[in-house]
Amino acid sequence: MISWTEALGFVLALVMVGCSIRELHWSWPLAILSPLLYFFVFKDSLLYAEAGLQLVFAVLALWGWWQWLRPGEDQQPALSLQRLPRQGWMLVGLSLGVLWPALAWLLLTYTDSDVAWWDALPTALSLIGQALLGRKYIENWLIWIAVNVLSVGLFAYKGLWLTCVLYALFIGLSVLGWREWQKRLAQP
């Protein structure tokens, strides 16, 4: 059964991603509200890493909002779209190699999760994707595609059907975000 919390979180999350694709800073307040609603949805479904991630998302949204709004030296936005350098990809791989098993261990040790490793993987990738989005690295969209594909399966397993639809839509929106940011990055 779909709760009002899941339904409202669904709508806010879609608007949030639409704003992110357009580089509208209004995505960030929505990135606070939607995760707070989804915290309860995931907690009630015993998806503790996903629930905890929602709280982290809400806090990181404050950082991302500040990153996108702070002025640079010429009073223009301090951040512009950029590509992740090779060293950045190495850091992404190292971060995933540390975060995924660490989160799985926490879930196995301290919760009654029945999908600890499966819950931990998209959570670890989401933390990485959020950091890349906050710094306007175009590759954040590739990370989100992977997160969303994994999450559809996880949420289907848990019977969160509206959230499955949301994450399936997120796959398409992430592809759209990737393409839109590539076009903008190519413009002089």
Keywords:
single chain; 188 residues; mainly alpha; 7 helices; 78% helix; globular
Could you walk me through the main structural features you see in this protein, from its secondary elements to its overall organization?
- With 188 residues, the protein is mostly helical.
- The chain has one domain.
- It is built from seven helices and no strands.
- Helix 3 packs parallel to helix 5.
- The protein is globular, with a radius of gyration of 16 Å.
Using only C-alpha atoms, the radius of gyration works out to 16 Å
What is the β-strand count? 0
Q: Provide the low-confidence segments as ranges.
A: none
SSE succession:
HHHHHHH
Question: Any chance you could write out the topology, listing elements then pairs?
Answer:
Layout (H helix, E strand, L loop, with lengths): L3 H18 L5 H18 L3 H22 L16 H25 L5 H19 L5 H18 L3 H26 L2
Helix pairs in contact: 1-2, 1-7, 2-3, 3-5, 4-5, 5-6, 6-7
